[in-house]
Amino acid sequence: MNAAGSSCRVRVPATTANLGPGFDCLGLALDLWNDVTFALEGHGVAVSVEGEYTEGLPRDESNLVAQSFLRLCEEAGKAPPAGLRIDCRVRVPLSSGLGSSSTAVAAGVLGANELLGRPFGLDRLLELAADIEGHPDNVAAALLGGLTIVVRKGDALLTKKILVPEVNVALAVPDLAFSTKSARAGLPTQVSMQDAVFNLGRIPLVVEALRTGDYELLSQVMEDRLHQAARIKLIRGGPAAWIAAQRAGAAAVAISGSGPSLVAFVRLAADAARIAREMAAAFEEEGVAARPLWLAASAAGATVSV
Fold it and tell me: Domain boundary residue among 163, 197, 222?
């Protein structure tokens, strides 16, 4: 491996995606970060993980960060390094609908790209990350930051980053076994024209509401007919937490990513903690432990430093 440097550090934000009607095309970066350090040393691939959310994470080349690193080497036509050490500081909850897998994929491709002397630009990195992840909305927000719109056009991805004013969200992260694959498996394979039009008309209004900070508009347009009705049935305590957020004053509520977390958009940052706790309490009343989080959106996406 002809590396431009021997080590680098990558920071990648959590994300919340789908955003009501914006199924598979809208994502928002959040100010909660995973940190990964890469060093060309030793023999083989060694991975260390630390943080609250590390149970079950592999410590070898089967780790998703390592897999993504090696995938980029392959795409660049480079042999994998003789020795690679990856140290991960994990702050984003796993399997939560907050883009934890996207942080791993983005970190892996960015780290490899840096140590190879940056053979690929951001567009190609996004395409590769989306291919590894299986869908582009989380990785686009993680790499670009802010509110992102992403669609496929042939083999390429078209993206647009929207600058938004201060956006604050309340989250409840339930302790439920959940996977994107299982959440997708429960979705209908066909939808009516009426439902498709229902969502299409609301997506630009969600974007405009977040872009302008119009929470009254946001409260009217976060509805969806394509995925949330099917998914909320899989989230024990989810309906109760949704209602709790609305009663506590949230402007809008959505399933974060494919779940099981719920995200509530709040008008005032000072209300975020209270609403998050109300959501978590509603989960717990249904017998599901849940962690409240309150976060701001992040205008910045993933960063690389040496």
Answer: 163
Rounded Cα–Cα distance for residues 257 and 271 (Å): 23
Encode pLDDT of 59-113 as tens digits: 999 999 999 999 999 999 999 999 999 999 999 999 999 999 999 999 999 999 9
Residue 2 lies in a domain: no
Domain count, the chain: 2
Place of tokens 């229902």: 198
Q: Which domain holds residue 204?
A: 168-296
Reported as half-sphere exposure (CB side, CA atoms, 13 A), residue 147 has a value of: 22
175 touches 289 (CB < 8 A):
yes
> What is the value of pTM for the model shown?
0.94
Task: State the pLDDT confidence band at 155, using cuts at 50, 70 and 90.
Answer: confident
pLDDT at 189: 83
Return contacts of 214-218, CB within 8 angstroms, 24+ apart: 215/251, 215/252, 215/265, 215/267, 216/251, 218/251, 218/252, 218/265
User: Is the same domain home to 159 and 11?
Assistant: yes
Return the residue matching tokens 């995200």.
Answer: 263
My answer on whether 11 and 158 are in the same domain is yes
In this structure, are 159 and 207 located in the same domain?
A: no
Give residue for tokens 């998703």. Answer: 64
